[in-house]
Amino acid sequence: xxxxxxxxxxxxxxxxxxxxxxxxxxxxxxxxxxxxxxxxxxxxxxxxxxxxxxxxxxxxxxxxxxxxxxxxxxxxxxxxxxxxxxxxxxxxxxxxxxxxxxxxxxxxxxxxxxxxxxxxxxxxxxxxxxxxxxxxxxxxxxxxxxxxxxxxxxxxxxxxxxxxxxxxxxxxxxxxxxxxxxxxxxxxxxxxxxxxxxxxxxxxxxxxxx
Length: 210
Hints:
24% of the residues lie in helices and 35% in strands. Helix 2 (66-74) packs across helix 5. The strands form 2 sheets. Strands 3-9-8-7-6-5-4 form a 7-stranded antiparallel β-sheet. Strands 1-2 form a two-stranded antiparallel sheet. It contains 5 helices and 9 strands, in the order H-E-E-E-H-H-E-E-E-E-E-E-H-H. It is an alpha+beta fold.
């Protein structure tokens, strides 16, 4: 792949293996705090890819009940209702969202001088899950001339004032590994944007905290 084509793919909005990625700097969610230093997030003892060069973390407190936040995050087929850049999601299994659940989701990539309009198809598989506590999923994002493998961990903790949501993600692949600082910046923007959307959607719900 040429450097021009690689750069072009990074200059359009995209969602990669569980994260909204956009080159427009996303404001951190209101009330967000800097990620705490320390070990990587885990879910049932499993974390992100320890060997990945591209990684980012983010966290925020959401003024909503744990049930509201969990429902929004795990009802994946309704993500397009509150995430503008997710155009479609299909569950590949039935029943409760659980370890082994898989879903395929799509985000558009508009045309630009180097590439025609296209889309990214992401297939995510839930590897670990503890209800109202944590989720870890993995999977590839595939588009024209682009392949990224992602590992994404989410943590949900009831705190004073709502729910502390923490997230960490790693990406690997030829294109992102070719420019680690830039790919990391884009990934960080994506995590901040996802948390902002989740916070807005959850706090708009009327379900009381409990």
